[in-house]
Amino acid sequence: MSKTRILSGIRSSGRLHIGNYLGAVKGMLALQEDSAYETYYMVADLHALTTPYDKEKFAEETRSVIKDYLAAGLDPEKSVLFVQSQVPEHVELAYYFSTVTTLAKMTHLPTYKEKVKQLPDHVTMALVNYPVLMAADILAYKAGLVPVGIDQEPHLEAAREIARRMNADFGTDFPEPKRFATKGEYVPSLSGEGKMSKSVEGSYILLTDGLDEIRAKLAKAPTDERVSNLFKLVELFKHERMEYYAAGQKRGDIRYSELKEELSLAIYEELKPMQEKRNKLTDEYIDEVIKKGAERARKVAVETVREVKEKMGILV
Ligand code: ADP
Ligand code: TRP
Description:
Elements: E1 4-11, H1 18-32, E2 37-44, H2 45-48, H3 58-72, E3 79-83, H4 89-98, H5 103-107, H6 110-118, H7 125-128, H8 130-139, E4 145-147, H9 153-170, E5 178-180, H10 211-220, H11 229-237, H12 242-251, H13 256-280, H14 283-312
Parallel strand pairs: 1-2, 2-3, 4-5
The structure holds adenosine-5'-diphosphate (ADP) and tryptophan.
Residues 7-11, 44, 47, 134, 137-138, 146, 148, 152, 155 line the site of tryptophan.
């Protein structure tokens, strides 16, 4: 029996934070280590083009995500690590998928509406097409499981709908991809408002932050008890101390300085080995990983595109 394929990706728009790590990368790692699965992990550089970017830094940001992946433990011997734009079949497949996707559906997605609010001057065709390209990323590999955070659920629903439509109209055999959830599927912002996100300054801790940076960021985090930000991080990084701090909060004598210091140390302890590994990675090695990954990914994607063209009645 052939293995279930997994696909995931992260946009190359800045360094990864602990929300990305807990919500997406940890799931990617767990599935990589399970021999029931064949794992494909990419850098979604084409998706990063849907919001304003700096062309001088863009290629380096793509490499940087591959570095973060390797530092976190993704292994090119176990997973296919690649860059989305180097497998042009994703774009081709997205075009075919766009023929069964209505504009109404895409413009009603909450993720789309949020971006329109954030960047009213950048409502491009590429932005509307974002979920269609994401569906193509996933379905090019016929992936059944996608390790991503909970905020990506509307995009997965769109991918399932595209899979159903294609199967019904053309007799393809796409699976309906499900989200693979982790304990950290929703990491709140340090400020307590919304989720941790790289587009919100003061909301995140980067995987590359040192102990002093982590301390300084946690020092600014509000300790209002209606805000669950710090408790969520304790739950994720220092689980064994949950009861102790919860009891303190109930009695009203919790010491947040103690909590923050313990939490800083626990987070740093988890990040330190990754940072050490990251520092040892050379650009030559990164480029080699990227090149090999694209070759391996393309083999599968080319096959899916050929099959889709045939089923859609396009001359092959
Ligand atoms: P950001 O919102 O910081 O720009 P992305 O949208 O690039 O992050 O998300 C990359 C991956 O990390 C996705 O799988 C997303 O679901 C996950 N992710 C992002 N932020 C969080 C968070 N705060 N908690 C859990 N997972 C997250
Ligand atoms: N939309 C995802 C994000 O913002 C990135 C992404 C692009 C993705 N294509 C994907 C995630 C395919 C999983 C599968 O994080």
